[in-house]
Amino acid sequence: MNRRTLAVLLLLAVLVASCGTGSPPDRAQPGDAASRGTPCEGTGDDFPGDVKLARCLTEWFWSQRFQENGGTYRPITRFVAYQGANGPDCGGQAAVPENAFYCPYGHFIAYDAAWLKAMYDQMGDGAVYVVIPHELGHAVQAQLVEDFRFNVERELQADCYAGAALSGLIRVGVLNTEQGDEEELLANLQAAGDPTDIWLAPDAHGTPQQRQQYFAHGYTEGMGTC
Ligand SMILES: [Zn+2]
């Protein structure tokens, strides 16, 4: 078995028919993404490898989707790991610790590496495969119609895109899922930067239930429903 195996994300009713055995978080299955026609190298057998692979595979997924629709996906320009408060600012706004964000000014993503690593250690590699595809979902939004009344709509659509990208990658065999735990996914979505549940708040991301629901929606139905 040498396909990349992604733990944690056995989130959905359709996939959790046999849930409850509580298998431990999976680590480090050698991957062969490159041999399956992706440009992505590495096996994702440690935190830096998973971060790199999550970014590469998700961008590969979106470049394919754009191409199918007669467009061209524009990759992010930078993928910045920062520590605590030393992150890059975005349009004059300082980066904050314990966060990951997409910045439309410069079209880049930055993440607090220690924060993401801590989630990875605590919750398994699914943390990386929720946070990075979510932020790349914002990079995709920036290239599509930008018409959201509320920030929460933007955030939930990014969750939906993240779910769609993950299921797409699983479908073509570059990622595998293993038995995981819905609560772990929920925890991941909560942890992925969720300052408030107030619908109208400018930084609202949606309730954990909403986030899980939108993620699952993209996962089962695909990007067209996002
Ligand atoms: Zn977001």
Automatic annotation (TrEMBL):
Residues 23-45 are annotated as: Disordered. Residues 1-28 form the signal peptide. GO terms for cellular component: membrane. It comes from the Bacteria. It is a single-pass membrane protein. It is found in: Membrane. It holds the Pfam family Zn_peptidase. Its main location: membrane. Keywords: Membrane, Signal, Transmembrane, Transmembrane helix. This is Metalloprotease. It comes from Microbispora catharanthi.
